[in-house]
Every structure is written in C-alpha cells, then in structure tokens.
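Why do we bother with holo predictions? Because pocket geometry can differ from the apo form. Keep that in mind while you read this record for 4'-deoxy-4'-aminopyridoxal-5'-phosphate.
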Amino acid sequence: MSEQLLKWIRPEIRELSAYQVPDASGLIKLDAMENPYRLPDALQRQWLDGLSSVAINRYPDPAATQLHDRLIDVMHVPQGQAIVLGNGSDELIQMLALAVTAKERCILSFEPGFVMYSMIARFAGMAYVSVPLADDFTLDMDSTRAAIEQHQPAIIFIAYPNNPTGNLFDSDAVEDIIRMAPGLVVIDEAYHPFAQTSFMPRLTDYDQLLVMRTVSKMGLAGLRLGLLCGNPALISEIDKVRLPYNINVLTQYTTDFVLNNAGVLQGQAEMIRADRDHLLRQLSLLIELEVFPSQANFILFRLKQANATDVFNLLRDDGVLIKNMDRPGPLANCLRVTVGTPEENQAFMHALEEALRH
Ligand code: PMP
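The structure, written out:
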C-alpha cells in the first residue's frame, strides 16, 4: 500500500494497534467475562418458535419501543429517566464521545481501567486523562480531585465494579466525584449482575449522572446491546448521534424474549457469584499468588514469583484460555480469569496448579 494513500489516515489512528481478540477454538474460554451458560432447552425452543415471525426483510423499529419498555422495567430505571440503546455499551461510549468531542476537551478515567474509554477518546479526536488508582486499586481522591480541577473533563467514566481489577469503588468516593465533576459522569455498571449494587436509584439526584448497563455479561454477549440511562434532556442529545437502526431485529426480538424470562439469567448470575466466591477462596490458598477481591465475574491475580506470560502460555497449552494482563506498571505479572462453569473453573485450577509446579 502506498504512503500517498495511507497519509490520509489520521496519525493518531495509524499509531494504534487494533484491539486483539485471540482465537479460542478448542479451548476452555475464560478470557472475556462471558456467562458460560446457555438458555434452558425449553426456553430455547420457545425462542426459536418466535424467531420465524421476525421480519428480517424490514428495517428494525428505530426506537426499539418494545425492548425499550422491557429494559426500563427489568433494569429498574427510575420513573422520569430516559434511556438510549447502543450496539453494546462500547457503542454508547462512542456515542458519548461523539456528542461531546472538541479539540480542547478530554475524557477522564482511571488506570488500571477499561481500555475502550481511552481508545474511543482517541477515535473521537479527544484527549484522554488517566488517573492512577492507589496500590490496592481504590480511588486516590487527592489525585482525582487535582486531575478534575486541572483538566475539566467533559466526561468521567467510572467502571463500577472496575475492569480489570474486579473491585467496587467506595460509593461515597464515587459520589464525591459526581459532585465535583464539571461535565458528565458515566457509571459503567457492566458487571452489575455480580455486584448487585447500583447508582441507578441515584439518577434522580444528579442531572450530570448517567448509568450504563449491558446485557453482555448477563448471558447475551452475542447480541450486542447496551443501554445508557439518565436525564431525558441529556439522553435526547446523545440519541442524535445514534445511527438510526443500530439495534438489529434479531437483537430486539431476542433480548425482549429473554428479559421477559429474566429470572433465568438472574439464576445464572447467582450461580456465577457463588462460584466466583469459591474460586476466590481456592486461589487465595495458593501462596504463589496475590489475589485481588472481586465483585465481578472475573478475578485478577498476580504471580509473586513465576512469570505471568509463561503461566498464561502453559495454561493455554493445557487447553485453558485466560487473559494475560502483564505489562509494566500496576498490572505487572497479573493474569485475569473469568468465572466459568464449576467444571471449567476446576479445569483452570488444575492447569494453574500444574503450571505453578513447572
Ligand atoms: N464496560 C466495561 C467495564 C467492560 O468491561 C466491557 C466489556 N468488557 C464493556 C463496558 C463493553 O461491554 P459491551 O460492549 O459488550 O456491552
């Protein structure tokens, strides 16, 4: 490809490396915070029956009215608040950035944190300010306050619980940040089913507060659906940058169908929470590891002596794919495992113990 053509691509995009998703074929997949369970057979058949009546020759309902109402109900969105839907919460982050972007404006979040906030800031031509968390991955309020005063961020993203650390920040500290923010504050509650605590009821207290949820971790990651909830005036502005048919007919039908039977997903989340606690206890017994507390469906741990990349490779050779988080800084020598079925978790524990003996 000639430089003449490539020069049209923005330099900050050319500098980026594409988001990598490793091939998981044939492996026990514990790398992406998915729910390991599928729908029960009877429900699956009912879903398939209804699927034949979905009109795939027509564009989707642009307002996704039925799904919209279902989500407001199931997610307990307070009365008087509005929602906008995205093709995954990733798309909502992008819509937010597009709605606020200007040369002198920035997005602020925390490190270690979810990579998409910084990537999307860059896509949208905005600066990104990263505030380091304390050594125990709690919010460092002095540096947070200083960064907010200095940079006046258009949006602050707070993942609650945080990815990749798994912990829930102190809710009073989060509330202090909401109060001191000059712009919007998005509480990203992607892992809500495993934490069961939420800022959703607080939407009515703060105009600048937005709560983001996704159905991905609940068990519907393949559908790509996220929602952003908040003040109707703000939501209707963000809705203007949404592409008209961003939620396809299959996603609208399927999410509405499954959430009409939301108890099934809630039951699965309950099992995953219990299995997470069990896995946390098992991991904590291994003296070779520093294990971080988790209120999500994954666990971050640090190898005290062994090399994280070696352990990651040994696990993969043994058929178990987790996520290698090792890079210089606060995640040095860290790995992250998603909670799977009890059998998958045991296969992981077994492979890990083997790798540590290596
Ligand atoms: N927020 C956080 C904190 C996440 O970890 C993820 C996915 N890993 C997302 C948002 C994106 O979720 P989705 O696009 O699947 O809704």
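The first helix runs from residue 3 to 6.
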